Amino acid sequence: MEEKDTWVEDIAGTFGLDVETVQLLESYLLKIIEVNKKINLTRIETLKSGRVLHLEDSLAGFQELKEAPAGLYADLGTGGGFPGVPLALVSGRDTLLVDSVKKKVTALEEVVRELGVQDRITCYGGRIEELALEKKGRFAVLTARALSSLSSLMELASPLLEQKGRLICYKANIEDSELEHAVALKETLAMRLVSDRSFMLSDGVTTRRIVVFEKVGYPTLKLPRRTGMAQKKPL
């Protein structure tokens, strides 16, 4: 007899969600996998791997998102919309998906419309530094998954965040030196470390780490720097 697929119920129970919300998350994942056949949005091509490496991984930061101040949320370098769309759907926050690759943004906009959630999830096709000039200090919380070094992410996030706003960094591996360097930039970037959590996904193999910084005060240098500088010439 074929084994019953209990993933939806299991995830609903793990993260305290209703089954309908998890089914909507899975519907989003399936649409992204389909779009990915035409546009390179993700390396994950199957429902089984996507459930763990996209949906479960995205939801892993839900607790950190809930601990952030109420207000506008943006997912930086969103790619296929992870963790941005899952976190938007489970939190109900107004969300902006940010990516510099315009064809990715166009594809995400279409999928969001198909899901009927375009009233609370919108997209921005441009560089993070450009967004910081347009919406300085407007965001309560930001996420970035496997996007750049911690120090570069802090620099990109600082001008976007309101006071007490939070940057949630999803990482696979972090060298001690990377974290130490990021912490040392507290005064320069007005970003302090508030939490650091490691865990394993349900596949029993994939390890993850979520590091959170909070905007406190004002940076000692003018931000944003020129486009690309945060990553090409990090502080």
Order of helices and strands: HHHHEHEHEHEHEHHEEH
CATH fold name: Rossmann fold
The CATH architecture can be given as 3-Layer(aba) Sandwich
Q: What's the quaternary structure here?
A: single chain
Q: Beta-strand percentage?
A: 15-25%
CATH superfamily: Vaccinia Virus protein VP39
The geometry reads as globular
The count of DSSP E runs of length 2 or more, i.e. the number of strands, is 7
Number of helices: 11
CA(first)-CA(last) distance: 59 Å
Main beta sheet? 7 strands, mixed
Radius of gyration: 17 Å
Protein name: Ribosomal RNA small subunit methyltransferase G
Keywords: Cytoplasm, Methyltransferase, rRNA processing, S-adenosyl-L-methionine, Transferase
Pfam families: GidB
InterPro entries: rRNA_ssu_MeTfrase_G, SAM-dependent_MTases_sf
In short:
By secondary structure, the chain is an alpha/beta fold. The chain is 42% helix and 22% strand. Strand 2, helix 6 (102-115) and strand 3 form a beta-alpha-beta unit.
